[in-house]
Amino acid sequence: MNINTRMKPIQILLGLFLLLTTSAIAQPDGKKLFKTNCAACHYASEKKLVGPGLKGVEQRWPDRAKLYAWIRNSQEFLKTGDAYAVKLFNDYNKSVMSAFPDLKDEEIDAILAYANNPDDGKAVAASAAGAAAGDVAAPAEPNDQNAIIIVLAFITVLLIILGFVLRSISKSLEALLNEKKGIVVIEGEPLPFKYQFAQWINDNKALVAIFIIVVSIGSLKFVYDGLMNVGVYQGYAPEQPIKFSHKIHAGQNGIACVYCHVGVEKSKHAVIPSANICMNCHKAVQEGPTYGREEIAKIYAALDYNPETQTYGNNPKPIKWIKIHNLPDHVYFNHAQHVKAGGVECTTCHGEIKEMEVVQQHSPLTMGWCINCHRETPVKYEENGYYKEFHARLNEELKSKYMKDGKVTVSEIGGLECAKCHY
Ligand code: HEC
Ligand code: HEC
Ligand code: HEC
Ligand code: HEC
Ligand code: HEC
Ligand code: HEC
Question: How far apart are the first and last CA of the chain?
């Protein structure tokens, strides 16, 4: 039998599947483009972040070609000596905007449309793109290039695998059916199962194909969702080797955070307490309200401590706490600076730890998150010894520049400079 003719309905289905998935992800999505490319430095409003708010930016750039050129590579564009751009660059202390050479015109239109109207990005994106194209043809629908490439790559791999699988199924079916022809069928006696199964598949090829496709789409979506969330772990709450409860310790028993996290006011790291600190209390407290002796015994095991004889053995091993908050290696973050100098509460960044049985990551820990806070939070001069000194030394010109609004924000003392946070 000819495999090609046999696979026809399957091929049609696969084609449909491809069409459906690709058109489903090719919606205009200025919001997503904005979030992935621009949101680290721009708000979709008139407010400043690292760069100016992008709402209404088109009015400042009457020549759209120049605007495209700026967004694709602002440093290159500055070389043209364009007066507005040069002034803007200087006004923003020569902060360098990232280059986006791969953004298409329609994609930029969609981003700006979203920035102008963040609540209704999609509809406006379509009409703005239409306007830019002179309303001649339906605009190509912009999207996140990378996402599409990833998905297409997966679909291709999937189709190749599927092709092989179907081919081998088809081959073995053929073999089985041929074999069956040679078997003497006894009246009333059922056929062996494998022949029945082969016959069934042969009779229900479309059904089998649909089943395989549904399973494939499911796994594809799973992989895709996973990829889109790489790097953001908000809500991450792994199970720890000992069921340590902040609710019992910091909440009900009111133990100060710094009693255990001894580094938090004087160093970069807050520090996870060693088992010896636990023993300050758990030499005496040998039973807990929820788990009895079981969980506390793990502290003893780690220290090779015998609560009966109250002696330590010589085989201690560290408790392997799983780190919940993780910044990438290229970022510098210092607890003392925030907690001691900045006077920021633990809860602002970590949430209500006192209420948590199991600690979970409360904030996204993205660059936009750090920067937002630096823009909005005033430096605490009054409470802070260093800044009385700093303030006294500010000359009048700088004072009037920074103190216009009556406060100095972290951004105004350099909290937006790349090198402050990046090695
Ligand atoms: C790393 C930070 C950063 C990123 C990411 C970034 N920008 Fe910018 N952008 C800036 C800064 C800073 C300025 C101000 C001018 C300067 O210093 O270069 C600016 C200026 C602009 C301007 C001119 C604003 C005006 O008021 O005239 C536009 C338009 C713009 N950006 C668009 C975008 C778009 C669209 C994206 C995303 C595709 C983006 N930017 C991503 C930092 C960034
Ligand atoms: C009795 C000691 C103790 C006290 C008091 C305590 N902690 Fe902890 N903390 C721990 C231990 C042990 C861990 C590691 C296990 C875990 O994640 O639950 C931890 C983990 C954490 C983590 C997650 C660290 C990571 O892995 O990223 C944060 C955030 C935290 N504590 C904040 C606080 C805050 C805020 C307070 C005060 C409200 C506090 N802790 C009080 C012992 C303590
Ligand atoms: C300052 C005193 C103190 C320190 C330090 C301390 N604990 Fe506790 N811990 C307590 C008290 C009090 C209880 C609750 C006893 C009760 O309510 O019956 C408790 C209960 C527990 C329980 C039992 C929970 C349950 O519900 O059964 C565990 C497990 C535990 N602690 C682990 C730790 C670990 C691990 C450390 C060190 C990182 C630590 N504790 C440090 C005072 C402390
Ligand atoms: C400005 C935000 C901010 C504040 C305020 C803050 N933290 Fe953190 N915390 C972080 C970030 C970001 C990390 C991840 C650091 C890393 O991966 O290097 C972290 C990590 C931790 C860790 C685990 C890793 C370590 O550094 O040892 C503990 C424990 C912790 N914080 C406790 C606290 C306590 C207790 C307080 C209050 C006294 C506090 N934090 C205040 C942002 C903050
Ligand atoms: C909740 C608000 C808040 C968040 C979130 C925050 N910061 Fe800060 N940050 C501050 C404050 C307030 C100061 C000023 C401290 C001072 O007075 O020296 C500061 C200062 C700094 C400084 C020193 C700046 C300078 O000019 O000396 C660095 C570096 C820094 N933060 C890094 C980070 C990083 C990295 C993150 C994100 C992982 C982050 N911050 C998140 C509030 C915040
Ligand atoms: C207040 C702290 C802070 C400042 C200032 C800052 N960054 Fe970041 N940056 C971060 C943090 C935190 C991350 C990690 C974000 C993550 O893991 O999602 C990051 C990540 C990045 C990345 C990796 C890509 C990504 O999105 O994860 C690049 C590139 C980057 N920053 C460039 C810059 C440039 C250029 C500047 C100066 C205009 C700058 N950063 C200023 C905190 C900062």
Answer: 65
How far is 312 from 67, CA to CA, in rounded Å? 71
> CB–CB of 143/152 below 8 Å?
no
What is the rounded distance in angstroms from the CA atom of residue 256 to the CA atom of residue 264?
12
Task: Evaluate the CA torsion angle 126, 132, 138, 143 in order and state its sign.
Answer: negative
The Cα-based distances of 89 to 96, 97, 246 in angstroms read: 8, 9, 48
- C-alpha span between 290 and 245 (Å, rounded): 10
Ligand 2 pocket test, candidate residues 240, 245, 260, most atoms within 8 A of CB: 260
Cβ neighbours, 10 Å, residue 18: 15
Residues 135 and 339: their CA atoms lie apart, in Å, by: 55
Distance 285 CA to ligand 2 centre (A): 19
Nearest alpha carbon, ligand 3 atom 2: 281
The answer to whether 22 and 152 have CB atoms below 8 angstroms apart is: yes
Cα torsion 347, 350, 352, 353 to 10°: value is -120
Cα–Cα distance, 126 to 110 (Å, whole number): 7
Output the residue whose Cα is nearest ligand 6's atom 10: 367
Kindly give, in sequence order, each residue whose CB lies less than 8 Å from that of residue 81, ignoring residues fewer than 6 positions away. none
The string of pLDDT tens digits covering residues 66-83 is 999 999 999 999 999 999
Residues near 366 by beta carbon (within 8 Å), at least 6 away in sequence: 40, 232
Distances in Å between the alpha carbon of 123 and those of 30, 62, 136, 313? 10, 23, 18, 70
pLDDT of amino acid 183: 67
pLDDT, tens only, 40-67: 778 888 888 778 999 999 999 989 999 9
Cα separation values, 129 from 23, 65, 102, 107, 140, Å: 18, 14, 17, 8, 8
